[in-house]
């Protein structure tokens, strides 16, 4: 993978041209924030397709670095009617309605489509999202950027955030962080060798956080993103820690086949 266009504060990791992978269902970004980002919401698949889009947009964030006091807003402090949501977005009082949650390095958050959210200042994070060019802004702190009140109010669930998934350990060193939605995110932290076997049509995104690993014959390291579409040998050292993402609702339990000596240890 290579970094694509770099809007200020963002690095987009895109599939290289000529890779034969077409347009993947996921997109990975590295975000850096020096101030609060706009209050946003994204449509689910049904709403998005009704507006001519290929899919909706759920997102997940892994916090790499967080300044003291850093926070993100996830949902509202209490349920409100949609007409009140619209009024609060117009007059700016929506900021006080948001449920601002403190974050620190290593935290993981999953925002299903329809979640009202905002990323705070002083953060460096990895964003994994459905690959679609849609953002509905509810409020942007008086900037001149376009708001999308009609679309945002339609798509939003104006209620407190409820985590849709409880992370669990699938195997030694393999933790499932999100599943049951349009994509799965896992975190791997273990030393092993084996075969990575993506499901047909569901390439796997590897996002190293620290340490060393080899996929096929290529070393991977923090700061980059790799996409694997077919079977590949892997060798992860004991210091390796990475995020693994792929589309689909169900966890791919057979994604990694460890070597026999690893299974018996």
Automatic annotation (TrEMBL):
Q: Which protein is depicted?
A: Mannose-6-phosphate isomerase
- State one molecular function term (GO): mannose-6-phosphate isomerase activity
- Supply the source organism for this entry: Sphingomonas trueperi
| SUPFAM superfamilies from the UniProt entry | RmlC-like cupins
Keywords in alphabetical order, please. Answer: Isomerase, Metal-binding, Zinc
Query: Where would one find coiled-coil regions in this protein?
Result: none
Reported EC number(s) for this entry are 5.3.1.8
Where in the sequence is the signal peptide annotated?
none
Q: Which InterPro entries does the protein's record reference? A: Carb_Metab_Reg_Kinase/Isom, RmlC-like_jellyroll, RmlC_Cupin_sf
Read off the PANTHER family from this record: FRUCTOKINASE, TRANSCRIPTIONAL REPRESSOR MPRA
Q: Which domain of life is it from?
A: Bacteria
- Tell me the enzyme class: isomerase
């Amino acid at each position: 993978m290579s970094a694509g266009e770099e809007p200020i504060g963002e690095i987009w990791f895109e599939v290289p041209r000529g890779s034969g992978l077409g347009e993947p269902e996921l997109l990975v970004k590295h975000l850096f924030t020096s101030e609060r980002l706009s209050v946003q919401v994204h449509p689910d698949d049904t709403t998005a397709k009704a507006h001519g889009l290929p899919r909706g947009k759920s997102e997940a964030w892994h916090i790499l670095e967080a300044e003291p006091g850093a926070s993100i807003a996830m949902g509202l402090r209490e349920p409100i009617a949609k007409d009140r949501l619209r009024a609060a977005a117009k007059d700016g009082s929506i900021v006080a309605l948001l449920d601002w949650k403190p974050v620190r390095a290593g935290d993981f958050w999953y925002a299903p489509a329809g979640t009202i959210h905002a990323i705070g200042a002083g953060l460096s994070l990895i964003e994994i999202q459905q690959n679609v060019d849609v953002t509905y802004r509810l409020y942007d702190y008086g900037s001149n950027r376009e708001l999308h009140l009609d679309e945002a109010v339609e798509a939003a669930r104006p209620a407190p955030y409820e985590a849709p998934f409880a992370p669990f350990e699938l195997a030694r060193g393999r933790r499932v962080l999100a599943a049951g939605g349009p994509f799965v995110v896992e975190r791997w932290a273990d030393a092993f060798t084996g075969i990575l076997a993506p499901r047909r049509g569901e390439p796997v995104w590897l996002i190293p956080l620290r340490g060393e690993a080899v996929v096929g014959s290529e070393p991977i390291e923090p700061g980059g993103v790799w996409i694997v579409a077919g079977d590949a040998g892997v060798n992860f050292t004991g210091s390796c820690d990475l995020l693994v993402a792929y589309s689909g609702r169900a966890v791919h339990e057979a994604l990694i086949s460890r070597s026999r000596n690893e299974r018996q240890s």
